[in-house]
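Blinded run. Sample ID left blank on purpose so nobody reads anything into the name before looking at the predicted structure. Input follows.
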Amino acid sequence: MSDSPQKLADLIAALPPAPTVLDVSRFLADLKSADLSRTKLEPVKLALVSSFTSDMLIDSLVAHGYCDGFDISVYNAPFGQYMQETLDSSSGLYRFAPDVVFFAVRLQDACPDIYYSFNSLDGPSLQKLTARWQTDWLSALRTFRSNSSALILCANYEQPAYPSLGLADADAQPSQCVTVVNLNAWLRSLAQEITDFHIVDIDALASRHGRARFTQPRMWFLARSAIAPDATWDYVGQIICLLRAVRGRSRKVLALDCDNTLWGGVLGELSSSGIALGHDFPGSAYVAFQRRILELYHRGIVLIVASRNDHSAVMDVFNNHPEMLLRSEHIAYFGINWDPKPQNLQRAAVALNLGLDSFVFIDDNPVECAMVRSILPEVLSICLPEDPAEFETALAGLDCFDQISVSAEDRHRGPMYRQEASRSELKTSVKDLETFYRELAMIATISRNDSSVASRAAQLTQRTNQFNMTTVRRTESQIKEFMSNPGYDVFTLRLQDRFGDNGIVGLAVVEHRDKEDILETFLMSCRVLGRTVETAFLSWLMNRSLSGQASRFTALYCRTVKNAPFADFYKSCRLQLADDDQSQDTQKWSYDLSLGSAEFCVPPWIEIRLASPAV
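Blinded prediction complete.
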C-alpha cells in the first residue's frame, strides 16, 4: 500500500479539534509537500454564493474536504452578488459549472428590517416584506435549477441574539423570533419543489457557539465578514457534513474499546465489581457515555467491540453488571482477545460484510489509535479526552455518522448486523457455497412503486457505493416522481433468511422507452453482497421485460472507484457491451429480447415472492 492514505490520516490526526486559521494554513502547506497521488479523494467543484464576505471560508472548506475524502475546488462569487449570480445565466457561477452550490444568504442582509427595524413594522408591513423576499428568492432558486443540476445547499436563518422586543417577543404579535422560525420552515419546504435541495442548519450552529459570539462585530464592520474566526471550522463542517451524507460517505460502524472507555479501570486488575460504572463520578461519566452510544445504536449505527481483554470477563460485564447500559444484544460483533486491534477490526469488516472506510474506532489510548491509523488509515480513529466527563460531548460532536434521514430500516440495523455475523459463522461451517446459500433459505420479496418505502429507496441511492451501478443519488421526492410516472417503474427488494429480516436491500429504477426497458438505477446493499441476490434480482427484471412489450433490455453502468469490482457484472449475466462503449466511463449493456430466449435463470436457492402493490 502506498503511504499516501496513512500520510493524510496522520496530517488529519494532527489537526486540533477546532483548528485556527494558522492551523489550517499549516495543514494545507503540509498537504502540498506530501505525495497524496494514491489517496482516493472525490473531486468536487463547489460554488460559494453569499450575502457577506466569504473569502475566509475557502481554506477551511478545502482543508475540511480533505479530512472527509473530498478534493474541493471553490468558486467564490463576488461579495453580495447572490441575486445577480443566480439570475444571470452568463455569470461566473454558471461558467464554473459547479457540482455543488452553497447559498449562504443571511436574512440580516436580504431583509435587514426584520433584524434591525423590527419594532417599526406592523403585521401587514411585515407580511408584505417577507412575502416579497420569499417570491424573489424562490424565483432565483427556480432559475438556478432550470440552468444547473448542481446539488443545492442553502443556509437557513439565524435567530436574533437579542430580540428587538426583549422578553415581550415571546407573546408579541408579530414576534421577531416566530417570524424567523416561519421563514426557516418555508425554506425547508422548498425541498418538496426543488430537486436536490438541502438545508444547512446554520441557526443550530450559531446556537451552539453562542448567538452573540457567532459574528465578531469588528470583523463585520471592517470587512463584512459574518462568521467569527473561531466558528469558521464548524461552519464549513456543516457544509461538508451534508455533502458527505448526500454523497454516501457517512460512517456506519462504531468500534469501541472497553477498559477506560466503556468503564473506568482495567477489568483484569479490578474484576467487574471494581470497575468505575454507576451513579457516582467517574462511573456516572461512563454511564452517560454509554447512553450516548445507545442513541447512535437506535438511529442505525452498528456497534462492535474491539478490546485486548479476557473474553469471558468482558462478556460477564455486558451480561450481568447492573449499571451497564450496553448489553450483548446491542453489539453486532465482539472482537475480544489479545490480538492487535487492527486485526479485530479487519475480522469485523469481513463478518459484517462492510468496508473499513465505514468504521470509526474510539479508544482512550493514543498508542492504540496511532496503531489503527497506521495499519488501517481508512478507519477514522478517535482518541478520547483524558477526562471521562468529556467523553459524551466528544462523541456527540462527531458528525461523521450523519445522514439525510433516518428510516425505520435504520433503527433495526443493529439486529440485522448481529444476524450477519451469524451468517458468517454458518459460511465457515459448511463445505461449499451452494450448501451455504441453500441453508440460508433466502426469500426475496419484490415490490413495485410502493410509495411507503420511498424514503428507504432514496436512502439506498445516497448510501450505497459498492454495488451501485450508476451511483446517481436520489431524493425521496424524486423516487416518488418515478413511481407516479407511467414511463418508469421502481422496484424494491426485501430479503429474509433463516436468521431474520435483512430489510429492503435492493433497488431498481426501470425506464420504459419505446420497445426498450432501460435499467437506469440498479443497486444492492453491501451487507447482502456475495449471496447471488443481485443476480436473482437482475434475472427477475429481465424476465419481466421478456414477458412484456420490450424487445431490448439495457442496463447502464457508470464506473467509479468503489463500483469498479463489478464492472463485468452485466457481462456475467449475458448482456453485451456496445463496441464504442468499451473504454467509456458510462456504458450501456444490452440484451436483445426479440431473440426469444428462454427465461433468465434465478438461482434456485432464492425464492422470489411478489408483494403488493402488484408487480
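Unblinding after everyone has recorded impressions. The two ends are 47 Å apart (CA to CA).
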